[in-house]
Amino acid sequence: MANIFATLISQTLNLPLKQVEATLNLLGDGCTIPFISRYRKEATGGLDEVQIAYISDQLAKLQELADRKETILKTIEEQGKLTDELRQRIEQSWNATELEDIYLPYRPKRRTRAMIAREKGLEPLAQFLLAQAQMPRSDMPVNVQVRQYINTEAGVNTAEEAIAGAQDIIAEQMAEDEKARGIVRRNFDFDATIESKVVKGKEQEGQNFRDYFDWKEKLSRCPSHRLLAMRRGESEGILRVSIGGNDALCVERLTRQYVHNGSQAGHLVADAVADGFKRLLKPSIETEYAQSSKEKADQEAIRIFVKNLEQLLMSAPLGQKRVLALDPGFRTGCKVVCLDAEGNLLHHDVIYPHPPKSAFIEAMNKMEALVKQYKIEAISIGNGTASRETEEFVKGLNLNLPTFVVSEDGASIYSASKVARDEFPNEDVTVRGAVSIGRRLMDPLAELVKIDPNSIGVGQYQKDVNQTALKHSLDQTVESCVNKVGVNVNTASKHLLTYISGLGPLLAQNIVDYRAEHGAFHSREELKKVNRMGPKAFQQSAGFLRVNDSDNPLDNSAVHPESYWVVEAMAKDLKCSVSDLIGDKGEANRERIDWTSYVSDKIGQETLNDIRAELAKPGRDPREQLEEFSFSDQVKELEDVQAGMVLPGIVTNVTNFGAFVDVGVHTKGLVHVSEMADHFVKDPNTVVSLHQHVLVRVKEVDLQRGRLALSMKGVSKE
The whole model's pTM is what? Predict the structure, then answer.
C-alpha cells in the first residue's frame, strides 16, 4: 500500500518518487513536518514545509479512501454480488468520484419505485425495452411482450402498469450508470450556473445580502467569497440558492446514449431517461456540485485565512522591553498596565483623559509617574474605541518613547478564557485584556497562540467553511510559525511550547513543571530529565528549543544536537573553541573552514549549509524589525475623509477580492483587487501583507453605509 501511495502522491503533486517515499517514511516514523523540513533535507531532497504538508495531506486522503474501499467491498460482499472483476475495479480505483459511481448500484437505499417494480418481476421487461431501443433495425412488438408481465397476484394489473414499472427500473439504472453520470458531469463542468433569489418577505431583514437577491452566474466563474456569501444567506434563511446545468442538452445526450431508433420501445425508453434525469440523476449531480463547489470555496477561504494568520503570527516583535500598555476607553477610562521585559504584570491602574470625566491633568501625572517608576521603554495602545484620542494624548505628553497602536482583535476572548484566568486568577478581564495588548507588542507570536485563530479577525467567512479542515490548516500554520522562530525554553509559556515539534500539551506542561521545581534549564541535554521526554520527543523538539545561558553556545542556536559533533570537529581542526566559530567574531575562523570536507554519509551539504548560516547568526529571528507608524492628523472620523486624499494606513485583513486598510477613522477602507496596482493582480497577497504600512488614495466615501473605497494605484508604499 505504501508504494501505491507514494506513486499516486508523486503523480498528483508532480514530485520525484524518491523524495515522496523518503518523506512518507519519515512521517511514518513519527517525524513532524517542521523537523523533516529543517533537519532531514538530504533525505527529502530539500522539500520545504509546504510540500511536505501537501504530501501529509494527500496521504491522509488516500488512507481515508482506502478505508472507504474496504467498507464498500465488505458491503457488496455481504450482498453476495462481489465478483472478481468488480473487486479488481474497486481495488484499482483511487478516484473518489469514480469509486462512488461504481458503488452506487449496490449502495443500501430506501425502498424505491424501481425496487418495487423488480419485486413485481418487471426487470426482464425493462431489459427488453432497453435492448430494442438500442438496436436500430429491431422493433419486436412491445405489446406482445408486455402482456407476459400482467400478473394480478404480483400487483401488475394492466399493460400500462407493467410499462410504468419497467420505466422506473430503466430510470434508476440510467441514473446509476457511470457513463450517464459522466455525461451530466461534463455538462455541469461547462454549463453549470449558480443562482440565488431572495426568500419572499425577507427583503428588509436581509439587506446585507441584497447584492444576491437576484443573482446568476456560471459556477466555474463564481469566486469563493461570492459563493460563501450566498451560502451564508441561504443558511440564514434569506436566500434560496440553486445549482443547475443545461437540462435540455443533458436529456438529449442521455437519450442518444440509450435510444438508437424511433420504435415504440425507443419512445418508452426515452421517456424513462427523461424521468430518470429529472427525478434521480439531476438532483444527485446538483448535490454533488453544490458540495464540490463549497469544498473549493472552503479551500480558497482557508488558504487566505492561513496566509493572513501566518503573516500575523510572524509580525515584527518589539522584543524584551519594559512596556506600558493602554486599553483605551471613554466612559470607563483607559486601563493601564506596566509589564517587565518578560511580560510579567507589575502594576495596573485606570486613567480618564477623555470625556465625560476628562481628568486630563491627573491622567498626565499618573502616566509620567508610571513611566519613571517602572522604567518604561515603549508604549502599546489597543486599536479599539478611543484609540486615536488615546494615541494623541500619549504623544502630547512628550515622553520620548516609541508608541505603537496594536490590534486588539481577540483580546476580549483571551481575557475571559481559562488561559487568562490561570495566568491572572486575581485580576479582572479588563486587566487581562490590557496585558494581552502589551504582550502583543513585545512578541505577537507568543501571545496570539493563546487565542483561537477564529477570534483574531483576519479571515474571510471562516465561520462558514468546514471547521475540521480549517482547524487542521490553522494548527499546521501555528506550528510552522512557532518552530520557524524557535522559543526560549526558560521563558516560553505552556501554550507556546505546545506547538513545538514533538511536544504537545502534556510534554509542554511537564517542561513548565520541571522549570517550577528545578529552576531554569542550563542545557538542552537537561531536557532529557523532563518526565516523558523520550528519545523521539527530544529528537523532534530539541532544535527548536533555545537555552540562552548554556555552557554550550550551540544550545542557543538552531543547530540540532545530533550535529554538534561536526561543529566540534571543525573547532578542533582549527584549534579553537566552538564559541570562536559563532557570530561576527567567528567570521574569520568560519572562512578558514573547508565545508565540503565534512560531507559524509552522516551529514550532507544541505545540513552543512544550514549550520554555516546558523553559526553566522545563531538563534536568528526570521521576523522583520518593528517600525513606528502614525495615522494622518488630518482625519479622525469618517466625516473628515474626502475623495482624493492620500493617507497612511495599516493593512488589517487580506481577502481574495482585495485588502482592508485602517486609516484611523474607525472604519476599515477596502482596496479592491482592481485598485491594488496598475497591472492586473490575481492574488492580493502578492501586493500587500497583513500589518503592512501603506499609502492609499481615497476613491469614495459613503457616509450612509459607513463605507470607504480606497486605491493604491499610482501611490507608492511606505
Answer: 0.88
